Amino acid sequence: MTTYATDSAPLDLAAIRERVDAVLEEFLERKASVCSRLQLPGEVADVLHRFLFAGGKRLRPLLCVLGWHAADNEFGLPEPVVRVAASLEMFHTSILVHDDIIDGSDTRRDQPTVHRALAAAHRERLDPDRFGIHAAIILGDLAAVWSAELLHSAGLTSHQLASAIGILDCMRTDVMYGQYLDMLTTGLPTCDLELAMKIIRYKTVAYTCERPLHLGASLADAQPHILTALSAYAHPLGEAFQLQDDLLGVYGNPAMTGKSNLEDLRDGKHTALVAIGLKNADPKQQEQLRILIGNSRLNESCAAVCRDILTVTARPKIDAMIRTRWSEAQHALNKAPFPPTVIQALRYVADAVVARNK
């Protein structure tokens, strides 16, 4: 696989992340101050702050800013655009908090998930685990509310705000349907690859890549051909991102990923990896996979059996699918009507997506 030079991007991606983090830091500090003044529970802002700053790639805010630069040739980065980008990360926090509850996850970013952290902080209760789940649902809802507040207080023009709301409405709907499809199929994996890819398109492609790029571009009043070119890049990139994520969910090192490599197998997630594995497995291998995948008591030795089978029956195909989609994203940039520095930055992002180990 040919790679492009990625030692440094002319657009300072690290600086963009730092500006996004600065907005989030200032916003949460202000919320903590209000909590203190009104004598409200301080742990609300504290827990969300710890979660937000425990890690995270800031991919969605970064793509939002790159969407802005793709449509705006001045290369300034106004503060309202940064605040809109930060609102995406706050919304992502809401999604992750709720997702961890749905999946019953214990860790995220090598830290206890929000519902586990809240349960641990309230062990004196009769049912701390129940409290932790209920409290985390509220905190996830609050993160969604605060995401909207970041957007509405960003200082956008009325035209920019109207454009942004339309895209965000679609993005939020996409990811909710993706989550629902994921829930419907969890525990019932089949060899239906198209269904697995449909989940990816709703849960990841639109939410993680396409809508953030479109959001940033819309703030610069992008022409339709810019949005079309961004979609041509985002679709294969989003699929590559999730396919890589599915590999990490089974083969990843928890010390690197910050989350378990057993949960997807225990839950019986209907991923492309599992769908292809079931399709290509011989009868004995199929029987083993069907017994083990979705077994809530699956341990490391049983997971190793699954990994061995999937390594033979599915992983080479998934690796090839990731390479193909990486190539399609790179090819889309060959004819994209973006400034050269934006193209280079987007190439950098594509390389990072397929090379990541966490």
UniProtKB/TrEMBL annotation:
GO biological process, one term: isoprenoid biosynthetic process
Keyword Metal-binding: yes
Pfam families: polyprenyl_synt
A GO term for molecular function: metal ion binding
Cofactor(s) the protein needs: Mg(2+)
Transferase among keywords: yes
Gene3D superfamilies per record: Farnesyl Diphosphate Synthase
InterPro entries in the cross-refs: Isoprenoid_synthase_dom_sf, Polyprenyl_synt, Polyprenyl_synt_CS
Keywords in alphabetical order: Magnesium, Metal-binding, Transferase
Pathway assignment: Isoprenoid biosynthesis
Family: Belongs to the FPP/GGPP synthase family.
Descriptive protein name: Geranylgeranyl diphosphate synthase
